[in-house]
Amino acid sequence: NDNNHDNNNHDNNNNDDNNHNNKSIVLELLAHRRHSWPLGRTPREVANNNNKMKKKTKKKTKKTKKTKKKKTKKTKKKTNKKEQEQHQQEQQQHFQSRKPLA
Fold it and tell me: How confident is the model at residue 73 (pLDDT cuts 50, 70, 90)?
């Protein structure tokens, strides 16, 4: 049993080595790809640079809306028809009673 355990352990160690090798290969591939971009910059680096170049626009401050006071409607006095007629008659009499300019 002990022997078996040792063997397993050895296999695990071997696996770790393989994993490490794989990682380094991947890293090399990545490094190669990075240098194959124009000017040796990754797209992310280019994008970051572009963002820095953009003009910074000032943030517009929100204006608070002023609430308008509602204008109170002036209600016209409703006059009675009788009163209206009387008023008209008085006016007519007044104009008639004025002396004509000679």
Answer: confident
Which residues constitute the domain of residue 19? 1-51
pLDDT (tens digit, 9 = 90+) per residue, 36-46? 555 566 667 77
> Is 62 a member of any domain?
no
Kindly state the helix (H) or strand (E) to which residue 21 belongs, with its residue range: helix 2-35
Q: What is the pTM of this model?
A: 0.20
In a domain, 88, yes or no: no
The total domain count for the chain is: 1
Tokens encoding 25: 């290969």
| 68 in any annotated domain | no
**Which token pair is 54?**
């953009």
State both tokens at 76: 């016209």
Q: How many Å apart are CA 21 and CA 101, to the nearest integer?
A: 125
Look up tokens 């490094």; give the residue.
31
